[in-house]
């Protein structure tokens, strides 16, 4: 790859669907109807004659899916991911709002750091607030309307290969075995993807698996929302590890159905919000007044808890031997600490990688190394940001990258400056939402600007 990672990420953020479909492959099989799988199917609809999405859940059914246990939790759609969705699905914003999603322009977003309200970046990109079932359901509706996309309700059980080429996936549909054949197979099976085992069973290498234990516990609750058009629709409050609190952060979003969705998170043995009383008390006592106001509304249903043990990534790009006709996307490749809200945006950028790869009319008999090289840039960015932040947690013990002590000091200065300095906050927001490469923060101008802003603030 001749371009720098920063230029590659910028190019991926600019990827748009072709003006008209231009098939370069016959049939594509996507294993997993996750958000990542659906966006991959959307891209494939432009480059394949037909696309089949295989999932054990019936994707024709609306609402939440059993295969998404975290679907009851609060999900963030970063501005970068929102921009990608609008490109893949023209009119997505209007349709989402019509179904109850809430627009979240910069002026409607509030962000606190250790109790201090951060400046608003007025020219930041818009975002959107809604529950996971609503956002995923709308994506699913858009994809399943495509004339060359269909679904199969079945459990995928293994790869089918012809020599060095992947030719399909073995499936079990209610006890009836079968094969879904394809010229390209896309693994979108999520964190628990079995592709590594399937590769090993077929005589190929397993990708290296990296993990960082974070032991995150989070809880989400719904409250009645009285205001139809609230001033603030997305509010986040983070506590840095240096702040003596057993709660790492909290957030609340305005979502469809006249509701607030509130979330609270803690690490290790800290499990805030296990009961309704505990959830409400902590929102009132440990966060800015807006959180107490939300908690004063009627609680709708039970508090839903979830545990995220670790961040993990599978390094497909490093495989020396890899069959042709096979790629992997979304959490199946890299799954990060959900506190940072990167999941859907990273999946959208994986779809952009797939679009850029297929646009080059690749040889179907050659492994998709160019795709994995593009994807590595996206994974490296999200992984470095989330794990660098996680390394600052008291209960996380490495491994620390070279120069970590200095880089963490610089990061703290930049993060502190985002509270008061608009230029630093603007650059930081672009990086956090995966619209710009982290190297854009590591310039002398940005660091000096952050130091000056922090000196003024003191």
Topology:
Layout: H1 5-13, E1 25-31, H2 35-47, E2 48-55, H3 79-88, H4 92-98, E3 102-104, E4 109-113, E5 116-117, E6 127-129, H5 132-144, E7 149-153, E8 155-162, E9 165-173, E10 176-181, E11 184-187, H6 195-201, E12 208-224, E13 234-238, E14 249-255, E15 259-267, H7 276-286, H8 289-295, E16 299-315, E17 326-328, E18 334-335, H9 343-359, H10 369-391, H11 404-417, H12 422-432, H13 444-457
Parallel strand pairs: 1-2, 1-11, 2-7, 4-13, 11-17
Antiparallel strand pairs: 3-6, 4-5, 8-9, 9-10, 12-15, 12-16, 13-14, 14-15, 16-18
Helix pairs in contact: 2-5, 2-9, 3-9, 7-8, 9-10, 11-13
Question: Could you describe the 3D structure shown?
Answer:
The model has no long low-confidence stretch (mean pLDDT 92). This protein is α/β, with parallel strands linked by helices and 458 residues long. A hairpin with a 2-residue loop joins strand 8 (155-162) and strand 9 (165-173). The protein has helices spanning 5-13, 35-47, 79-88, 92-98, 132-144, 195-201, 276-286, 289-295, 343-359, 369-391, 404-417, 422-432, 444-457; strands at 25-31, 48-55, 102-104, 109-113, 116-117, 127-129, 149-153, 155-162, 165-173, 176-181, 184-187, 208-224, 234-238, 249-255, 259-267, 299-315, 326-328, 334-335. The chain is globular, with a radius of gyration of 22 Å. Helices cover 34% and strands 26% of the residues. The strands form four sheets. The protein has an eight-stranded mixed β-sheet with strand order 5-4-13-14-15-12-16-18. It is built from 13 helices and 18 strands. The relative contact order is 0.16.
